[in-house]
Amino acid sequence: MIVMVVDDDKVALQKNAETLSKRRVAAVTVLYRTGRKAAEYAASNPVDMVFARARLPDMSGEELLE
Predict the structure, then answer these.
(1) Per-residue pLDDT of the chain (66 residues; tens, 9 = 90+)
(2) Where are the alpha helices (DSSP H) in 1-66?
(3) Helix, strand, coil: what percent of the chain each, to 5?
(4) Which long-range contacts (C-beta less than 8 Å, at least 24 apart) are formed by 9-14?
């Protein structure tokens, strides 16, 4: 399972990564601080789950999901 977390807050990214790593599910966590970089990754890699802020520095979370 690939889990993508997109948040411009570095501390929030780290906390999310720590929380996800404690789950008993085999997952790779991918962290990005901008929607553009996250979208570039998702365009060429399968992503099973996305956690994104509603407002990112360069786009909204909804735009990223589109």
Answers:
(1) 888 999 999 999 889 888 888 877 677 889 999 999 999 999 999 999 999 999 999 999 999 988
(2) 10-21, 35-44, 61-65
(3) 40, 25, 35
(4) 9/53
What span, in angstroms and rounded, lies between the C-alpha atoms of 6 and 24? Answer: 22
Instruction: Name the maximum alpha-carbon separation found in the chain.
Output: 33
Angle, CA 41 vertex, CA 49 and CA 46 arms, to 5°: 45
Helix, coil or strand: residue 5: strand
Distance (Å, whole) CA 57 – CA 48? 23
